[in-house]
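Quiz preparation item.
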């Protein structure tokens, strides 16, 4: 593979890109092993993992480089097998990541991966966002709420509208087609300004990504 993942990670603001790339491979091998016993994802081959999981997860800081130096509390809704939460926790140890999913086998894997990779900055919680949204301990807790490939943006916002601090943001990973379909409904909101980021091409011809972002008015 001619693609240099460590160089891509450096362009995304990762401070130790070589070490990060090694840790991502360690994560991939763990995912491949556990996936043989418990179905977690279709993507475990090295190239697909690199492009469609690891690089895609890092697009958050490609699109928003100003986030890199900040000490952020981030909620990853519907984290699945840990993307982007595990990748972001590996890349930015000064961020506190909360990975949330309703499916036990996926949260169990995220917990195992966090333990194996010594990610003290990641907490994995099994639960539904809409239910956690009603709990006091999740109210005004996060600087950023993100989600990738899990649900339409209006639904995600409705289920997490109490999660963020006053200055917090929602940043959802989307394809251009999804964003065009979902933005009009979001823009009916009287309390949040919603925008679409510029498009970013994934390496390896793995598609085009952008972000729907929301910030309180």
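Solution:
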């Amino acid at each position: 593979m001619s693609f240099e993942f460590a160089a891509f990670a450096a362009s995304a603001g990762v401070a130790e890109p070589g070490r990060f790339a090694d840790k991502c491979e360690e994560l991939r091998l763990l995912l491949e092993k556990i996936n043989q016993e418990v179905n977690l994802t279709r993507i475990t081959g090295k190239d697909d993992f690199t492009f469609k999981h690891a690089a895609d997860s890092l697009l958050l800081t490609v699109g928003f480089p100003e986030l890199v130096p900040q000490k952020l509390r981030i909620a990853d809704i519907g984290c699945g097998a840990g993307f982007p939460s595990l990748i972001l926790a590996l890349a930015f140890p000064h961020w506190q990541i909360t990975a949330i999913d309703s499916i036990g086998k996926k949260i169990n894997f995220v917990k195992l991966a966090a333990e194996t990779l010594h990610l003290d900055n990641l907490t994995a919680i099994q639960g539904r966002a809409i239910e956690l949204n009603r709990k006091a301990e999740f109210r005004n807790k996060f600087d950023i709420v993100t989600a990738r490939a899990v649900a339409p943006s209006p639904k995600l916002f409705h289920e997490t509208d109490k999660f963020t601090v006053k200055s917090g943001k929602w940043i959802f990973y989307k394809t251009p087609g999804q964003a065009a379909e979902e933005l009009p409904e979001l823009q009916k909101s009287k309390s949040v300004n919603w925008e679409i980021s510029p498009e970013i091409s994934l390496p390896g011809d793995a598609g085009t990504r952008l972000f729907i972002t929301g910030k309180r008015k």
